[in-house]
């Protein structure tokens, strides 16, 4: 009976604590509530209204990779892009994006000027333009940003993945002069879509436009990728790197002197920095980029010390090249011990190799020596 009483007390305390936590989660700073009310009213005064709850959710997912259902019902949520918080916040309560992290000063004065008197207030004008572009594709706001607010244009296109207007995209890319002072999340946003559920994560069309605006930025992105931790899968990162390197090799295609070929220099830098990259590229046939394959062959000629030399080492004096990954599979060729082979895939117990005759098949790893 005593145990039952203790259990009831514990459950009552637990329920009480859970109730307090829920109430705490729903609490909001009064100043924050006031600011949301002001910005929401200012947006509504400018005929801002999201098309539907579903459209708002879809666009938040597309532009930020964020599920709206995970956001707070009241107040603001910070926006995390590529493992860093950016200088914008989401208000699910007001259905808008806020610029900056800090609350606005002198809210009563702002309410009187911007909401009651409907005077122009620069910060609120920017907020209106931002949200009417993101959620309404408003052409007037797009025109204002193109002509008056280049920094916001860049953030819309790069950080928020907004690609609905070619003139806005062009304006944004033309005004990115350097990546040296940009935070890492900015570079990752240039390379990959925020919505990681997309079938094609790499922003290939945008990167091709960036090349036309400032090809030096493509070079900067190549060095950025190989010197920073992956935020997507290795496979997607390598595919993006190959795409960018191919762009640079195409630019300098007519330059047959490898020593003065910028694309070749960047590829060499990547291979020197990431020692396993050449093997990963080789396994996937250089993503079908013939220029990268040719440049890699030149790199191996110039850097023989970086090549891994594989030979057959079998006490029987030879080993079998098999069609499949097992000992009962069809024998395609016998390879003598000491003979050089090229390893195409070294995952698992059976390596995919190519013989000096050009035959491809599988050899057990115990019969291969570096």
Question: What's the overall average pLDDT, rounded?
Answer: 89
Number of helices: 15
| First-residue to last-residue Cα separation | 73 Å
**Main sheet characteristics:** 5 strands, antiparallel
Give the fraction of residues assigned to helices: 40-55%
Please list the strands of the largest sheet in the order they lie side by side.
9-8-7-4-10
List keywords for this structure.
single chain, alpha+beta, SH3 type barrels, 3 domains, five-stranded antiparallel beta sheet, three-stranded antiparallel beta sheet, disordered N terminus, SH3-like_bac-type, SH3b domain-containing protein
What does this structure look like?
- There is one protein chain.
- It contains 15 helices and ten strands.
- The strands form three sheets. A five-stranded antiparallel sheet has the order 9-8-7-4-10.
- With 370 residues, the protein is α+β, with helices and mostly antiparallel strands.
